[in-house]
Amino acid sequence: MSRYILRRLLGLVPTLLVIFTLSFLLMRAAPGGPFDAEKPVPAEVKRNLELQYHLREPWCEARFLPALREPGLSTAAERAIRSEAPWSSRVEKLCTGAFQYGWMLSNYVRGDFGPSYKYKDRSVNEFIASGLPVTMQLGLIAMCFALLIGLGAGLVAATKQNLWQDHASMGAALLGISVPNFVLGPVLIFVFSLTLAWLPPARWDGWRYMLIPGFTLGIAYAAYVARLTRGGMLEVVRQDFIRTARAKGLSERLVILRHAVRGGLLPVVSYLGPALAGLFTGSIVIERIFNIPGVGRYFVDAALNRDITLAMAVVVVDAVFLLVANLVVDVILGLLDPRVRYE
Amino acid sequence: MALTKTHTGWNARLPSRRREGERPTSGWWGRFLARPAVHDPGKLALPLRILLAACVVLVMACTRGGETFGPPKRARTGNTFYVGGGAEPESIDPGKTYDAPGFMVSRNLFEGLMRPDPVTLAPLPGVASSYEESDDGKRFVFHLRPDARWSDGAPVTAHDFEWSWKRVLDPATAAQYAGLLWDLKNGKAYAEGRAPADAVGVRAKDDRTLLVELERAVPWFVDLLTFGPFQPVPRHAIERHGMAWTRPENIVTNGPFHLDKWVISYQIEIAKSPTYWGADEVKLDRVVFVVSDDNHAMMRLFRAGELDWIGPDVRPPQEYLEHLASKKDFRSDRDLATYFYLINLRADAPEPLRDKRVRKALDMSIDKEAMARFVMKGGERPARTLVPDLFVEQGYAPPPGNPYDPEEARRLLREAGYGPGGKPFGTLEVLYNTHDAHRQVAEALQAMWKRELGIDVQLVNQEWKVFMNNRLEGYFQLARAGWTGDFQDPYSFLSMFLSDSEQNETRWVNEEYDALVREALEHRDRAERYALYAKAEAILLEELPMIPLYYYAQNTLLGSWVKGWHPNSQDIHPFRDVWLENEE
Amino acid sequence: MNRDALELPLFEAEEDEEVAGTSLWQDAWKRLRKNRMAVASAAILALVVLFCVAGPWVVAHGFDEQDLAYGARGASWSHWFGTDLHGRDLLVRTMHGGRISLLVGLCATAVSLTLGVAYGAVSGYFGGRLDTAMMRVVDVLYTIPFMFVVILFLVLFGRSLVLLFVALGAVSWLTMARIVRGQVMSLKQSEFVEAARASGVRHAGIIFRHLVPNALGPIIVYTTLTIPRVMLEEAFLSYLGLGVQPPMASWGLLVSDGANAMTFFPHLLLFPGAMLTVTLFSLNFLGDGLRDALDPRMRT
To answer: Which of A281, A296, B35, B438 has the most crowded Cβ, counting Cβ within 10 A?
Structure first.
């Protein structure tokens, strides 16, 4: 087992590298930069900031486009120089890009995500440090809702197969998958907050604020969990050892709770991986609707504000999180399910 | 299994569902009819029933009346004021701030030589307890009060002011509002690197006395002293922490509040400062700025009682305004701001726009009344001039501007050679920053120009930063703009279109206009100044580098328990003077 | 003994209720028809498509007719779904929104289908190292949080409809590739493949004319389940303002506008939201039904 874990951990590296490179390429290809200020910034100041962000690399400039080295060049002048020598300009850009890639990669490996493009006196680490715990809290609550409601509904459906409880549960589950969370969220806000005034409509200031967002985020996954639990339990219930248990005289309740549920749990556990991925993605919209200061909202704001370093960091952090979570889920699955054996 | 004979042979037949005496039916429809009438009634009825119940609740919940939009009495307890802060401020450094949310926070953390009166916005003694002005209006002496302190206990001295003002002018600081300090003697020269810092007309005679000398008399100079760039910043903190000096753990302030906590993009908390000289007059314990750029979410928060005031940067969306008009906690006041569209007149501008008649046609085919009433719906007034209507009460006689006359507009268009049978006009591109209100205005303009002039308009929207950059660089044909007066004089608006103004993104040049506006500054008598402004504005409205649309209204929601809050034209409400009436 | 009685009956296929040799498809079709909820879902879907495609010609109002003075009002006799904030009839806008949403769903699914089938079929057919490499790529791509990348893409490179199709299609082709690969791998040893190879059919022909059609079952099921997922993702992106742009409407955009205005005008949220939910529900149900109908396990 430990060799398997090690192998998986090593396998993380190329995957993360690919994700990092992809995000980096997107960032470089994108138009616009951090200094699209409202009022023009003096050329020297702009230059210094660009050097700081490694958007400019003196070595590359000196080698491929020395005309850029002149101090005090305005943006228009720079653009003119570049358009006069398009090939040199492209090579120089590639060179600068390569340097920036190396610099950012070495930073990322050390856990430093660099400065934010938009909030120039803040580092991306601060955003992640303050937003990630919030998103994880939200995800945890959503997962609790998902598991409690889902397991419960799946259990009921499986034990009362083909009766009205089964159809009702599965119908509700399908409904849960079909109602988008950005439809459900506002509806719940409307009913429970604006009309009944039982719960607050937004923000994240206490446990009461967590209920509607957690439920909204978790309900789709509750639906999947319910279906999987039911399916898994039904599959188990058909098997011989259940018949044996019943023949031994075990009460139906014990049969279900001790044996059948385990069968239902396995597909749920293996679903946890994709569920976490979905929770992260879903949190983008939920955090937006409910004004929750988590990384999902930071990501959307960063994307819309062209704060590329922050957006990149969120993507990479999310990927790391998911890969590790998948690994943990697989290990747990290996422990729970005797049929799964890892080399 | 029965065997039946067919023309090809024997074939086995499944027992048919048909029984003796039943209606002979076959096929799909028959099977549908033949199914047993009684099926499991609860099969899917339960989810449907729940759904139905939910729908009933929803429908019942669809109406909620009441005298107030928010709760009638304060839902929270405690002496903390919750206000909507708008978007995340880019900076709360008073010298560098340029966005409204940043100003709202820094205004309460720092105090300049003067502070604004909450009712009239007239300058009241702040850090300076008194001042003297020379007869020619070019020299001032400010006497600082002895008990003005920084939050770390150090006294606020005239040297702080001298250093802070020069810092704003310093090109390395890249302060957005440095232009306001160009009126200081050699201020502009220093900012452009042509003069040393020592030559700037601000000098600390001693710890308690500040001498100020201006290039020319500016009638509203003392008013400006309440404003951000003129506020002092702690040299010792900045030199120690650099860009990070505005963090809660590093910041040092001299105002009625000090910065306590800052969760990025979520909320900013400030607490009453014990070192402030007027601490006795500050009644609030804390203020929480709820940061969000989602106006609808802020409205919902206010409705649920989470906010005491939705804040000056949160405008209730237009669609609500009709419903809100009758609510007791809704306020609508006139704002010193104009909404207009810039027309690009640079060398690479599209040909039709370079013809003055075309621009006039565009202006005259907009039904601004309808737009103000049905698109904005918030008490905005239709605008024919750049300078807001508030100045009219102070004696400004604006030129009439262009009326709404689609016939005349079409005639002008034909005269310019466009219109039916004329030269092709091409598609006009309208640029605006992503926001519901701007989109609705743009869509309305699109519809109006299409209907009246047959011109096709393409709408392009971009995020604020990208949009501003494109406007600055001139990548637009028509672009949306809005401007709030920084001080109570039409110059604040007219100066935008001076040929050397940085804000003149249209690059419109008119020497007569420049001359008139500059000459107006020479006159200290308001009536004379206003007369010259009116002449200049007449030129502006004739040449039309911009199309005025409406004057802003300040629509806001304020809990009835908030006291000490007064409406004024610049929507400045110092929290030092505000208090809450809790439900005790 | 009567010789007729000893004659073995000939079994031939006839149209009516005689036992004839049934193919996989007929079996599945029968099973599907028996599943009443699936049939009902299909009917609802057909109604929805009719509503969206043919509806605008029936309704008197135009999709873009603004009446700013009228503003947003609830359901009434002249406006069955009410009007939106610009005075536009919500019924027509919902229909147009449906057209766009369904179009995006179908096109993006088509992209996903093409990509996934081609990739999976090639990978499964050739096997060996190529297969391992291709599947490793899929594994790596699986771990990328696609929605984030799509959002970045749309923000940075503009919001065109074509880009939307491609981006959404790119998100869901991976599972299709895996499914097709699995099917192809289990089918490629069959005799008909050998026969085709023996008669000189080239690789491409074998893959696309013999293997893929025989793997159609799971492909169809997965396609039917991809459409609602893609529609949901499009609505999600439109909700964030990154999908379909005004003046075009999609259900996601209508829901987004409605969610904002729900404090006073809940009908703006409820009608498009309900349409979206009903469509997704029906699609999911139909997909489930198809899966039950085509699933070989049920035959035992």
So the answer is: A296
Residue type present at position C177: A
CB-CB under 8 Å, A183 with C276: yes
CATH 3.40.190.10 residue ranges for chain B: 1-8+69-329+558-584
Which residue of chain A has the CA closest to C279? A178
Alpha carbon distance C63, C14 (integer Å)? 51
* Angle formed by the axes of helices C90-126 and C216-239, nearest 10°: 130
Hey, are the CB atoms on C144 and A177 less than 8 Å from each other?
Answer: no
- For residue C278, count other CB atoms closer than 10 A to its CB: 16
What is the spatial order of strands in the sheet that B80-86 belongs to? B80-86, B286-291, B267-272, B257-263
Best residue in A38, A165, A199 for a mutation probing chain B (most B CBs within 10 Å): A38
Give me the tens of pLDDT residue by residue for chain B, a chain 584 residues long: 444 444 444 444 444 444 444 444 455 555 545 544 444 444 445 556 666 666 666 555 444 567 889 888 888 888 999 999 888 887 899 988 878 889 999 999 999 999 999 988 889 999 999 999 998 889 999 999 999 999 999 999 999 999 999 999 988 887 878 888 988 999 989 988 888 988 999 999 999 999 999 998 888 899 899 998 999 999 999 999 988 899 999 999 999 999 999 998 899 999 999 999 999 999 999 999 999 888 888 999 999 999 999 998 888 877 788 888 889 999 988 889 999 999 999 988 888 899 999 999 999 999 999 998 888 877 889 999 999 988 998 889 999 989 999 999 999 999 998 888 888 888 899 999 888 788 889 989 999 999 999 899 999 988 777 888 888 888 999 999 999 888 888 999 999 999 988 788 999 999 999 999 989 988 888 899 999 999 999 999 999 999 999 999 889 999 999 999 998 888 899 999 999 987 65
Instruction: Tell me the one-letter amino acid at B318.
Output: Q
Contact C9 B444 (CB under 8 A): no
Closest-approach residue (CA) in chain A for B98: A38
Does A187 sit within 8 Å of C157, measured CB to CB?
A: no
Mark yes or no for CB contact C14/B439 under 8 Å.
no
Domain with CATH 3.10.105.10 in chain B: 333-554
Burial of A82 per CB tally in 10 Å (0-12, 13-18, 19+): middle
Domain B333-554 belongs in CATH node 3.10.320.10: no
Rounded CA gap, B363 and B409, in Å?
8
- Contact state of B304 with A194 under an 8 Å Cβ cutoff: yes
Judge contact between C218 and C287, C-beta under 8 A: no
Tell the burial category of A206 from Cβ atoms under 10 Å away from its Cβ (0-12, 13-18, 19+): exposed
A31 touches chain C (CB under 8 A): yes
Phi, psi of B260 (to 5 degrees): -105, -50
Chain B residue numbers touching C11 (CB-CB < 8 A) = 11-12
Name residues whose C-beta falls within 8 Å of residue B40's C-beta, 6 or more positions apart in sequence. A163, A164
Q: So what's the ipTM on this one?
A: 0.81
In the three-class reduction of DSSP (H, G, I as helix; E, B as strand; rest coil), residue A287 is classed as helix
B257-263 and B267-272 beta bridge pairing: antiparallel
The answer to whether A137 contacts chain B (CB < 8 Å) is no
CATH number for the segment(s) B1-8+69-329+558-584 = 3.40.190.10
- Asked if A149 and A220 touch (Cβ cutoff 8 Å), the reply is no
Q: What CA–CA distance (Å, rounded) separates C201 from C213?
A: 16
Kindly report the nearest CA distance between residue C188 and chain B, in angstroms.
Answer: 37
For residue C33, the chain B residues in CB contact (below 8 A) are 28
CB contact under 8 A, C85 and B319: yes
Instruction: Give the 3-state secondary structure of residue B554.
Output: strand
The answer to whether residue C263 neighbours chain B at the CB level (below 8 Å) is yes
